[in-house]
Design a protein that fits this description.
By secondary structure, this protein is mainly α. The protein has one domain. It has 17 helices and no strands. The chain is globular.
Length: about 450
């Protein structure tokens, strides 16, 4: 537990700094471009992330799982997976080009073709960066993972600040900044990954290849459904109300999703730990402790953000974005539910059951689409926010059902804070303060 807390704390600190820089970057872009331009930027970048979701083959969770469980040599695992990565990149680029050429007017009717073309430049960098992040997590090199995340966040902020408000390159500048930040960061992670696992071999192992295909397929389908569950509302808002509404809604989503770093941090550390452990009793106690802790950490900032949504939007983005206040408050309900479901998703995947995440994501996506089609035409982006919040809640409830069956834990175990939790938090804080004092005294001598 101590190692998990340390790794989570360091990853969490990195995430906090990265999220702050990401928020500042989002503010710069939104204030400079306005709701219409910000909406076009969001939609163009959505094209890149959509093609990545369609063609990633579940590569990241597969990389983490097979490197962490230690069944095969790491060099052999990465040698196989890098071939999938190259294929994934080629297919993502070609499919993105086909979408722009033949279906741009259908899916992005009010977004200039130039912006869509520029967004495709980010695809190789994003796919490579995420694949190598998976390699570092699978080898439990959280230090290098955190440094890489920090490097990307700083570079991303600097380039966006340079190209958008300073050089005034508009949406095109923002998309070029995205491509450069991902590509340069991927190059750094490539160097680190090769130093951690120096010898990669692509000599085919049929058993390993079959396992990668099976696990990757289940992870891919679940991840694809999860992606569209998170982003289908953007597509529908664009079709019903246009880029300006997308610009307003994406600001609400961006602010609400700042809270995801808590569950994302814990789940990133949890998956390799669960994958590497064969102790069923430890797994049964550990994941509920993480879910309860994440819930305790997410609720207070969510309540504060909901309470002060209007002044925060005016302060950060200007009065142009006030219509995003109500959707932001509603989305926070779903963010809390999604934070817990993400932890359970990584537990299920770590136990070797990624297909269960596919089932729950399919249900949640169906709920999301149906509710959006009903509520969005009537209530606009507020209706879209309700659809997302309710779909995330259905995702949580369905994951809890599967998790209970596998672990034997109850609903109360998953969400109810116990006295032993509070005792553990107190001891952990005391140990952290003692460690900080010792380091501070040592630095003075």
């Amino acid at each position: 537990m101590a190692q998990f807390i340390k790794a989570t704390a360091m990853t969490g600190l990195t995430r906090v700094i990265s999220r702050i820089l990401g928020l500042l970057a989002m503010i710069l872009v939104a204030r400079t471009l306005g709701p219409e331009g910000h909406g076009q930027y969001t939609l163009a970048y959505l094209l890149a992330t959509t093609t990545i979701a369609l063609m990633n083959f579940g590569l990241v969770p597969t990389t983490i799982y097979y490197l962490a469980n230690g069944k095969y040599p790491r060099g052999q695992v990465l040698g196989h997976l890098v071939l999938f990565h190259l294929l994934s990149t080629a297919l993502a680029l070609s499919s993105g080009w086909l979408i722009v050429k033949h279906y741009a007017d259908l899916f992005f009717p009010q977004t200039p073709r130039t912006y869509l073309d520029l967004s495709l430049l980010s695809i190789p960098g994003i796919l490579t960066y995420r694949f190598l992040q998976g390699a570092l997590l699978g080898t439990q090199r959280f230090d290098l993972y955190n440094l890489g995340q920090m490097f990307w966040a700083i570079l991303h902020f600097i380039l966006l600040a340079l190209f958008v408000p300073i050089l005034k390159m508009g949406v095109s500048g923002a998309l070029v900044a995205e491509a450069l930040s991902w590509s340069l960061s991927a190059a750094l992670l490539w160097h680190w990954s090769r130093s951690v696992v120096p010898h990669w071999t692509s000599r085919i192992n049929r058993v390993l290849l079959k396992g990668i295909l099976r696990y990757g397929f289940y992870s891919y389908v679940g991840g694809l459904l999860a992606f569209f569950n998170e982003r289908v509302d953007i597509y529908l808002i664009n079709l019903f109300q246009g880029p300006k509404a997308v610009g307003l809604y994406s600001v609400a989503v961006g602010l609400a999703e700042r809270l995801w770093f808590i569950s994302h941090t814990a789940s990133l550390v949890l998956l390799p730990r669960i994958s590497a452990s064969s102790d069923a009793k430890w797994k049964r106690r550990f994941t509920p402790l993480v879910t309860r802790t994440v819930l305790l950490m997410v609720l207070p900032p969510a309540l504060l953000l909901a309470l002060f949504a209007r002044p925060i939007l005016v302060l950060l983005y200007s009065e142009q974005y006030l219509p995003a206040a109500r959707p932001l408050q509603i989305l926070l309900l779903g963010i809390v539910a999604f934070s817990i479901s993400r932890i359970l998703a990584h537990d299920l995947a770590g136990r070797g059951h990624p297909l269960l995440n596919t089932y729950t994501s399919a249900l949640s996506l169906a709920v999301n689409v149906v509710l959006n089609l009903i509520l969005l035409p009537r209530w606009g982006i507020t209706g879209a926010a309700w659809a997302s919040a309710l779909s995330y809640s259905s995702l949580l409830f369905s994951k809890i059902i599967f998790y209970r069956q596998l672990s034997g834990n109850t609903w109360r175990d998953i969400i109810w804070i116990t006295r032993s939790d509070l005792h553990l938090y107190r001891i952990t804080i005391q140990q952290a303060l003692t460690h900080i004092k010792q380091r501070w005294r040592g630095s003075r001598t």
